């Protein structure tokens, strides 16, 4: 598999000392982070390592994961395990569940995912179905296994599940119709599980960012004019966990949501059609 150089790491702890303490105390000692080789997952891993939480890092690009794991383990004196797995494949998901079962995982950040764009009718349906496997199927499988595992933890510990939805998941999005649908699925899943799992001490958070600079846009065939950095999402998510059900991290996500908020759903879809016309080829 092709690898590219590790992006310049932002390894400065950005959480407040109080939040760092809360995250480590409530959601340690181990966190599982999917999509940890890049973007939002990687930024979450960096923040969690700085908080002293041990990490299970999951993605396909083993070289990037190993380099990150070595770096974070040395810097923060934490333990890191790496799982190079394709979450579009059942054996990839099984490998993640096996390693999770062998650790006391108090937090999962399920950030692995990708998007597609363009006219649905002209697109490659295999790519759409693979996207559903990674963005939805793997999320359900891992969430289900970890929720059971977390339910069995010591009664005085909290646990957390952070699921990555998106601003696009709140209405139909022409030229990214299937991708937006996968994010709507994740958003609704998280909203339901939040109330269902609360009695078991499991905090569920949906994270719904707007445009973020990461590997996402290139893989999805999108161009982003204005975007925020992944560390904004990581900090926003960890600060919101256990407090609210859905967070729109950063000023850009909040501003875009406010602009759409009062529109009827069909108008939101029309507005997204205009936006995506400018963002996709
Ligand atoms: N960037 C945005 O503007 C934005 C906005 C809203 C929501 N989101 C959501 O946020 C999440 C993270 O996106 P990002 O911006 O961080 O994108 P990114 O930089 O492209 O990172 C995606 C991560 O997912 C992993 N991944 C992709 N396909 C995989 C597969 N088949 N098996 C295992 N891992 C896989 C990638 O690792 P490998 O390639 O090494 O496997 C990478 O670590 C996604 O769910 C996305 O839908 C992103």
Tell me the number of structural domains: 1
The CATH architecture name reads 3-Layer(aba) Sandwich
Helices and strands, in N-to-C order?
A: HEHEHEHEHEHEHHEHH
CATH superfamily: NAD(P)-binding Rossmann-like Domain
Contiguous helical run count = 10
> What is the subunit arrangement here?
single chain
CATH-defined topology: Rossmann fold
The average pLDDT is 93
Percent of residues in helical segments?
40-55%
Short key terms for the protein model shown above:
281 residues, alpha/beta, Rossmann fold, 7-stranded parallel sheet, 50% helix, globular, binds NADP nicotinamide-adenine-dinucleotide phosphate
Describe what you observe in this structure.
- The protein has about 280 residues and is α/β, with parallel strands linked by helices.
- The protein has helices at about 15-25, 40-50, 60-75, 90-100, 125-150, 175-195, 215-220, 230-240, 250-260, 265-280; strands spanning about 30-35, 55-60, 80-85, 105-110, 160-165, 200-205, 245.
- It has one domain (about 15-280): Rossmann fold.
- It is built from ten helices and seven strands.
- The radius of gyration is 18 Å and the shape is globular.
- The structure holds NADP nicotinamide-adenine-dinucleotide phosphate.
- NADP nicotinamide-adenine-dinucleotide phosphate binds near residues 61, 87, 111 and 114.
- NADP nicotinamide-adenine-dinucleotide phosphate binds near residues 38, 40, 60, 113 and 166.
In short, what is this structure?
With 281 residues, the protein is α/β, with parallel strands linked by helices.
């Amino acid at each position: 598999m092709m690898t590219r150089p590790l992006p310049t790491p932002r390894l400065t702890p950005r959480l407040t000392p109080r939040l760092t303490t809360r995250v480590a105390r409530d959601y340690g000692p181990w966190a599982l982070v999917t999509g940890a080789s890049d973007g939002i997952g990687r930024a979450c891993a960096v923040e969690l390592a700085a908080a002293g939480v041990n990490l299970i890092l999951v993605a396909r690009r083993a070289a990037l994961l190993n380099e990150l794991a070595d770096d974070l383990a040395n810097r923060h004196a934490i333990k890191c395990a790496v799982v190079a797995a394709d979450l579009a494949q059942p054996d990839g998901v099984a490998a993640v569940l096996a390693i999770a079962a062998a650790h006391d995982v108090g937090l999962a950040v399920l950030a692995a995912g990708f998007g597609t764009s363009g006219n649905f009718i002209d697109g490659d349906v295999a790519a759409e179905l693979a996207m559903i496997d990674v963005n939805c199927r793997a999320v359900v499988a891992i969430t289900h296994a970890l929720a059971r595992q977390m339910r069995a933890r010591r009664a005085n510990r909290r646990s957390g599940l952070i699921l990555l939805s998106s601003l696009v998941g709140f209405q139909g999005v022409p030229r990214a119709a299937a991708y937006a649908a996968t994010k709507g699925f994740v958003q609704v899943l998280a909203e339901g599980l939040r109330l269902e799992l609360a009695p078991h001490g499991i905090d569920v958070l949906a994270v719904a960012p707007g445009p973020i600079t990461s590997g996402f846009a290139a893989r999805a065939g999108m161009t982003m004019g204005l975007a925020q950095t992944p560390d904004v999402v990581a900090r926003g998510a960890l600060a919101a966990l256990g407090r609210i059900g859905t967070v729109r991290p950063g000023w850009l996500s909040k501003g875009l949501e406010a602009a759409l908020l009062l529109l009827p759903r069909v108008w939101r879809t029309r507005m997204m059609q205009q936006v995506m016309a400018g963002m996709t080829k």
